[in-house]
Specification:
Elements: H1 2-13, H2 24-37, H3 39-59, H4 83-112, H5 119-156, H6 163-179, H7 182-188, H8 193-203, H9 208-230, H10 236-266
Helix pairs in contact: 2-10, 3-4, 3-10, 4-5, 4-10, 5-6, 5-7, 7-8, 9-10
C-alpha cells in the first residue's frame, strides 16, 4: 500500500509510462557537431562571455576580506555584508551574463533556421526581447528564491527552517524544471510572456523526465565540471585557462539547450 502511494506521488511529478523519446546522447553529439561547424561564431561568443566573467571578478568587492566574514565566521556574520555594494556588483554582472546567453541562443536559433545573421543583427533582435527574457527568468526561479530566503533568514536568526520553506524549495525546483525553457521560447518566437509560460508548461506535461535529465545536465553536471576545474586556478595563467574553459562549456550548453528545446517542442 505504501509502495503504491509512493509510486503515485512520483508519477505526479514525472512521466507516466515511456513517454520520453529524446535521445540525450544524440543531443550532445548534434550539439558538438554544431559547435564545431560554427566554430568562429561560437568562439566569438565564448570570448565575450569570458570578458564578462573577468570584468565581473574585477568589479566585485572582496567580501571575504571584510571583518564580517573573516576568521572564524558564522552564518550570522553574513548579515553585516553591505547589501547595496553586493547588489551593485552582482546585478550588472548577472544581467550581462543573461544577455550574452540570450544573444547566443538567438544566434544559434537563426543559424539553425538557415538564416545566419551577423552577431550585431542578432544583438538587436535579442535586445528587443530582453526585458521579457528577464521577466521569465525571474518567474522561473522565484519560488526557489523565496524558499532559500526563508532558510537563510532562519539560519541568520539561529532558528530551524520551517517545513513550509523546505516544501517551497522542493516545489520551486519542480516549477523551475517545468518552466526554465519559457524564456528561450519567448526569445525565439513572437509569443508573449503568458503564452510562453503556458506553452512550455503544457508541452512538458508528458516530458517531465526529459526535462529533469536536461536540467541535471545543464544546471548540475556542467557547473560541477566548472567547479572542479576552478581548483586548478592556482595562478593567473591557470585562472585564465579555467575561465576560458568555463566560458566554452557555458556556450556549449546553450547549443545543448537549443537542440533539446527543438526536440522538446516537436514531441506530441
Amino acid at each position: 500500500m505504501a509502495q503504491t502511494a509512493k509510486q503515485g506521488i512520483i508519477s505526479a511529478f514525472f512521466d507516466k509510462g515511456n513517454s520520453m523519446k529524446i535521445n540525450f546522447t544524440q543531443v550532445l553529439q548534434d550539439s558538438w557537431h554544431f559547435f564545431r561547424n560554427q566554430q568562429k561564431t561560437m568562439l566569438q561568443l565564448v570570448f565575450m562571455l569570458f570578458i564578462v566573467q573577468v570584468l565581473s571578478v574585477l568589479l566585485t568587492p572582496d567580501f571575504m576580506a571584510q571583518d564580517a566574514v573573516s576568521g572564524g565566521n558564522t552564518l550570522s556574520d553574513l548579515s553585516q555584508i553591505n547589501a547595496s555594494d553586493f547588489l551593485a556588483s552582482f546585478l550588472p554582472a548577472q544581467l550581462a551574463s543573461i544577455f550574452i546567453s540570450a544573444w547566443g541562443l538567438m544566434t544559434i536559433h537563426q543559424i539553425s533556421r538557415h538564416n545566419p545573421l551577423t552577431l550585431s543583427a542578432n544583438f538587436v533582435l535579442t535586445l528587443r526581447r530582453f526585458i521579457g527574457v528577464i521577466v521569465l527568468e525571474t518567474v522561473s526561479v522565484l519560488p526557489v528564491l523565496f524558499g532559500v530566503a526563508h532558510i537563510v533568514g532562519a539560519a541568520l536568526s539561529n532558528t530551524a527552517p520551517s517545513i513550509a520553506a523546505l516544501l517551497m524549495i522542493f516545489f520551486g525546483i519542480y516549477f523551475f524544471i517545468r518552466l526554465n525553457l519559457a524564456s528561450l521560447h519567448y526569445l525565439t518566437t513572437q509569443d508573449g510572456i503568458g503564452q510562453s509560460l503556458q506553452k512550455i508548461w503544457w508541452q512538458g506535461r508528458n516530458q517531465k523526465t526529459a526535462l529533469l535529465i536536461y536540467a541535471l545536465l545543464v544546471y548540475f553536471v556542467a557547473p560541477m565540471l566548472i567547479l572542479q576545474l576552478s581548483v586548478l586556478s592556482e595562478n593567473l595563467t591557470f585562472s585564465v585557462i579555467v575561465s576560458l574553459t568555463a566560458a566554452l562549456i557555458n556556450i556549449f550548453t546553450l547549443v545543448v539547450t537549443y537542440r533539446f528545446y527543438s526536440l522538446f517542442m516537436q514531441e506530441p
